[in-house]
């Protein structure tokens, strides 16, 4: 047995000393992420099946349609549930019409659970919790309502999330369905990230958006709500600029949101224009199109939950409650919030007034946009100090890895040269 040269022993000793640090670095580079809690959440297939069964148990109140569309080998389908009591025709223009969409972003599973809860309450299989007086709707009110509800707008994207791509928000071919609409489409901000916000090849390039546009234009709702998660907020137009529309329509929207915030969000929810309040502008969004082009007088984007303490890579936990008490409370609070809107919406909006909304710009809102805390567009607080610490950690990891690599190369080189020197006498003999 040949003796190790002393230098090699030192090298191995150093490498052994560094081994725990190396493992730690590798562990931090790929931290564990929270998996989907299947005890709390339905799979998309199960949810669709449950909703079909619910509708079939209540033909006097609920009906369901499936719309299909596709192009360039990509196909999508969208289920739309209609709530309309007494089997009346949903195209009766005297009704007060509400259009709700959930699950536009794949990773926001909780929104579709809320859709199912709202449908269960509308069918009277479940009941509103008696919180904050509850918004009990009497038959006279319910008779005037027609609600169309899309439980999972982005079914293909949701499938990708269920297959393990927990941070996916885009559709089945990588387009953000909330950037694919026609108002201010395709404009990119400085911090544009195609992984998150790819707007597609053209406005309405995506089958899902085409279906939603058709639905909105034909149904012509009085209220539109696009339900998301990632933070707690009640947004009104606009997303693509730092302002809200001015005048009475805007006041009515804001006043309804303030009531919902007070009753169901304990005044925690951020209220204002999407573009002004969240700290970044979003172009080609559904709500801006529904307000500007479909001319829906009350067009909102709700953000119902967000865990901004968690790592932005831990997407299931960031966008969805992971424990039963939070899950239950959230569904109770937000289903109650929607029933408050079903109750107050018609009173806040004079049905006889024209649906054309006034679109003046308020300089106050413009300035307000600069005074709120800036968040990055994925819902995570990105304060300067956090960014600095993250970069220092990354550089430290790189430094440690490169040191180990250099040490390894150095040791191999010594080993080689020693072996080389030893080998010469062998050959010579
Ligand atoms: Zn979203």
From TrEMBL:
Entry annotation: catalytic residues: 303
Cofactors: Zn(2+)
Signal sequence, start to end: 1-27
Keyword Signal tagged: yes
Keywords: Membrane, Signal, Transmembrane, Transmembrane helix
Superkingdom: Eukaryota
Name listed for the protein in its UniProt record: Peptidase M14 domain-containing protein
Native species: Brassica rapa subsp. trilocularis
Name of the gene encoding the protein in the UniProt record: A09p022740.1_BraROA
